[in-house]
Design goal:
The complex is a heterodimer. By secondary structure, chain A is mainly alpha-helical. Chain A has a domain at 87-307: MetI-like (MetI-like fold), CATH 1.10.3720.10. Helix content of chain A is 66%, strand content 3%. Chain A contains 12 helices and 2 strands; from the N terminus they run H-E-E-H-H-H-H-H-H-H-H-H-H-H. A two-stranded antiparallel sheet of chain A has the order 1-2. In chain A, helix 3 runs antiparallel to helix 9, helix 4 (125-136) runs antiparallel to helix 7 and helix 7 packs across helix 9 (220-248). The longest helix of chain A is centred in the first third of the chain and has 34 residues, at 87-120. By secondary structure, chain B is mostly helical. Chain B has 2 domains: 36-106 and 286-323, no CATH class; 113-280, MetI-like (MetI-like fold). Mean pLDDT of chain B is 81; it is low at 1-30 and 319-323. The chains are: A mainly alpha, B mainly alpha. The interface between A and B is large, with 135 and 135 residues.
Chain lengths: 316, 323
C-alpha cells in the first residue's frame, strides 16, 4: 500500500525547545553506539534480509536463467535482449501506460474538484471520512464489488444503461473496455484519498494571498489558475509522483477480474512479471522485467520532480 | 513529504498577520463568498460524490442478503431479492455442499471463518512487530548519538523507492528455500521487523519530542532502556496508534504477497480466499450473493475500525500545518 500521511504532530505539553537531531557532544565520539546497536538490531535484520539482499539478488537474477529448480545460470544480458524483442512485453507496457494515463488523468481532476469542494463548501470531517472510505477497503474487495455491479447480464450499471435504452456494455469482457473499466474502478477507490492530500495542500495556502487577489478584483477563475494552481504545485507534483508510481504497479484489480484478458487486453506489466515467474517459472526473465519496471519508475519520478519543479515552492 | 515543509512554515505566518488586520478582515473576505446558486451547485456535486462513494457498499449488502437465484429476475430492484441469510451461511461453511449447490453456490469447501482467523493472526502480528521494532529503530535514529547514523538512515530510506514486486520475487525464493511456504511465518516475516516508511514516520515524531523530559530522567540515573519504555513510548502513543492502524489495514488488504506464499487453505487470508472463491464460482451463473457476502465479511473489520477511528485517520492524512 502506498501511503503518504502527514507527519505526526509534535507532542503537546512540555516546552517545545526540541532540537531536530541530538547533537554529538564532546567526549562522545562513539556516543550511544552500543545502545543504538541493540535498538536497531531487529529492524536491521528485517532490512538486510528482506530489503537489501533481495534488492541485490533481484538484480543478479536478472542476468541469469533460473527456473526455481537447480541453480541460476549466468547468461549476461540475454534476458534484456529477449525482452527488447518480446511483443508481449511491449504490449504489457502499452496496456500499463494506457491504464496509468486514464487512471491518473481522471483521478487527479476529480480529486482536485473534490478537494476544492472540501475546502470551500463541505468542510465537515464526516464528509471527508465518507469519501475516504473506499480507500480503506482492499483492492480485491473493491474489484469484486465492481465486477458484480458491472456484470454484463445482471449488473446494476448495465440495468441502468439498458433502462436508458442503450446497448449493454461488456465492461470486463471486451478488449476495448477492460482497461478503462479497471482504471475507473481504481479511480473510485482512490479519489477520496487523493482529494484529501490535495485538500491538505489547499489548506496550507495562506489566506492573505487570496485577500490580495480579491482586493485586486480578480475573478474566481483567474484566482484559481493564477494563484491556487501555482501555489498548490508542490503538493500536486508530490501527489502525482506517488499516484503515478502506484498506478504503474496495478495488479490486484486485474488479477481478480480479468486475469489479464480478454486475450492480452489487460495484461499489465506486473501481471506479466507474475505470470513469467509463477506460471512459466522463468525467474531470471521475470527479474529482468522487474528491473526494467524499477528503472521506469525511477525515471518517471525523476522527470516529474524535475520538470514540474516539485521541490520548489512558489510561496517565497 | 519533505517538500511541503517550506509551505508549512509559511502557513504559520498569515495567522499571526491576520491578528493585526483583524478589524478589516470581514470586509475583505466577503467578496470571496460564492453566490447562492453556485453554492447550491457545489453542494449538489458533494451529494453526488457521496452517493457514488456509499451506494456501492449498500449494493454489496443488498446482494449479500438476496438469494442468488432471485437476482436475475430482480436485477433492478433496490431491496434484497427474496431475502435470505443463505449466502452468509454458505461462505461461512455452514451449509452442506448439496444445500450450497441448490442455492447457487459451487459446493466447493469454502470457509471464511478460517480465512478471517488467518487474516487476524497475520495482521495483528505484523502490526505489533512492525510498529514496536520500527519504534526502537526510530529511537536509535533520532535520540541516540552514534557514528554513521545519518548514512545508515539514508540507506534505509533509499529502499523506500524499490517497488514491492522487485523484492517480492527474491523474497519468495528465500521463503521457499527456508521451507516456509504456506506457513504464517512465511507470510509475516518480511514485514515483521520494519518498513522504511514506519521508521521514517516515527523518527519524525521522536525528533520533535522535548529533550528536557529525557534529560531530567537521565539525572535520576535512569537508563536508556527505561527512558524508551517509560517515557518515549507512552509519549508517542498517538502517532504509534495511527501507524498501527495504517499498518493493520495495509496488511489486512494485502493481496500480492500472501498470494505468492500463502495459497494453502490452512493459512489463506481473506483477500486470497476471495480470489479463490471467485475463481471457483460457477461460470455463466456466478454465486453473486455468496461473493458479496464474502466481500462484506472481508471488509467488515476494516469498516468497523474506520467508523471507530475514522476522524483520527482523516485528520492524519495530508501534511501538518494550519488550523
Amino acid at each position: 500500500m502506498t501511503t503518504i500521511t502527514k507527519l505526526p504532530d509534535p507532542p503537546t505539553g512540555g516546552t517545545k525547545k526540541a532540537g531536530t537531531l541530538a547533537p554529538v557532544r564532546k567526549g562522545q565520539r562513539i556516543g550511544d553506539l552500543k545502545m543504538a546497536l541493540v535498538f536497531i538490531f531487529p529492524a536491521m535484520i528485517g532490512f538486510v534480509v528482506f530489503f537489501l539482499i533481495p534488492t541485490i539478488r533481484g538484480v543478479y537474477l536478472s542476468f541469469t536463467e533460473y527456473s526455481i529448480l537447480g541453480d541460476p545460470t549466468w547468461i549476461g544480458v540475454k534476458n534484456y535482449v529477449s525482452i527488447f524483442a518480446d511483443e508481449l512485453f511491449w504490449n504489457s507496457m502499452a496496456v500499463t501506460v494506457q491504464y496509468v494515463a486514464i487512471n491518473i488523468g481522471f483521478q487527479t481532476v476529480i480529486a482536485l474538484g473534490l478537494a476544492l469542494l472540501m475546502h470551500r463548501v463541505a468542510k465537515s470531517t464526516f464528509i471527508r471520512g465518507a469519501l475516504l472510505l473506499p480507500f480503506f477497503v482492499a483492492n480485491v474487495i473493491v474489484a469484486l464489488l465492481w465486477f458484480w455491479m458491472l456484470d454484463y447480464q445482471l449488473g446494476i450499471v448495465n440495468e441502468v444503461i439498458n433502462w436508458m435504452g442503450l446497448p449493454r456494455i461488456a465492461f470486463f469482457g471486451s478488449e476495448q473496455w477492460a482497461i478503462p473499466t479497471i482504471a475507473a474502478v481504481n479511480v473510485w477507490r482512490h479519489m477520496g484519498y487523493t482529494a484529501l492530500l490535495i485538500f491538505a495542500g489547499l489548506q496550507a495556502i495562506p489566506q492573505h494571498v487570496y485577500e490580495v487577489a480579491s482586493l485586486d478584483g480578480a475573478s474566481p477563475t483567474r484566482t484559481f489558475w493564477g494563484i491556487t494552481i501555482p501555489l498548490l504545485r508542490p503538493v500536486l507534483v508530490l501527489v502525482l509522483v506517488v499516484t503515478v508510481i502506484g498506478s504503474f504497479q496495478v495488479f490486484d484489480t486485474v488479477a481478480v477480474t480479468t486475469g489479464g484478458g480478454p486475450i492480452n487486453a489487460s495484461r499489465v506489466i506486473q501481471m506479466y512479471i507474475y505470470q513469467k515467474a509463477f506460471t512459466e517459472s522463468d525467474f531470471g526473465y521475470a527479474s529482468a522485467l522487474s528491473v526494467i519496471l524499477f528503472v521506469i519508475l525511477a525515471l518517471v519520478a525523476f522527470i516529474q520532480m524535475k520538470f514540474l519543479k516539485g521541490n520548489e515552492s512558489d510561496l517565497d | 513529504m519533505t517538500t511541503t515543509s517550506p509551505s508549512r512554515q509559511d502557513a504559520g505566518r498569515p495567522s499571526a498577520r491576520r491578528g493585526a488586520d483583524a478589524p478589516i478582515k470581514p470586509v475583505i473576505t466577503k467578496p470571496r463568498k460564492p453566490i447562492n446558486w453556485g453554492r447550491a451547485g457545489a453542494w449538489a456535486l458533494v451529494v453526488i460524490a457521496l452517493i457514488v462513494t456509499i451506494a456501492p457498499f449498500l449494493w454489496m449488502l443488498r446482494t449479500a442478503l438476496s438469494s442468488n437465484h432471485s437476482l436475475a429476475a430482480n436485477a433492478g430492484n433496490l431491496l434484497p431479492a427474496d431475502f435470505s441469510w443463505g449466502a452468509f451461511k454458505r461462505v461461512m461453511g455452514l451449509q452442506t455442499p448439496e444445500e450450497a449447490i441448490a442455492e447457487g453456490g459451487s459446493g466447493a469447501a469454502i470457509n471464511f471463518w478460517w480465512y478471517l482467523r488467518s487474516s487476524i493472526i497475520v495482521s495483528t502480528l505484523v502490526t505489533a512487530g512492525q510498529v514496536f521494532f520500527s519504534a526502537m529503530a526510530a529511537y536509535a535514529f533520532s535520540r541516540l548519538r552514534w557514528p554513521g547514523r545519518e548514512k545508515v538512515f539514508a540507506l534505509f530510506l533509499a529502499t523506500m523507492m524499490v517497488p514491492p514486486i522487485f523484492t517480492a520475487l527474491p523474497n519468495f525464493l528465500m521463503i521457499k528455500n527456508l521451507g516456509l511456504l504456506n506457513t504464517y511465518a512465511g507470510i509475516i516475516l518480511p514485514f515483521l521487523f520494519m518498513t522504511p516508511f514506519a521508521i521514517f514516520f516515527l523518527r519524525q515524531f521522536f525528533m520533535s519530542m522535548s529533550r528536557e523530559v529525557e534529560e531530567a530522567a537521565m539525572l535520576d540515573g535512569a537508563k536508556k532502556f527505561r527512558i524508551f519504555f517509560q517515557i518515549v513510548l507512552p509519549n508517542a502513543a498517538a502517532p504509534m496508534a495511527t501507524l498501527a492502524l495504517l499498518t493493520f489495514v495495509g496488511t489486512w488488504n494485502e493481496y500480492f504477497w500472501p498470494l505468492l506464499v500463502g495459497q494453502d487453505e490452512n493459512v489463506r487470508v481473506l483477500t486470497v480466499g476471495l480470489g479463490v472463491f471467485k475463481s471457483q464460482s460457477p461460470q455463466g451463473a456466478p454465486d453473486w450473493s455468496g461473493l458479496m457476502a464474502a466481500t462484506l465479511i472481508a471488509a467488515l473489520p476494516v469498516l468497523l475500525l474506520f467508523i471507530a477511528f475514522g476522524k483520527k485517520v482523516v485528520n492524519s492524512i495530508g501534511f501538518s500545518g494550519v488550523k
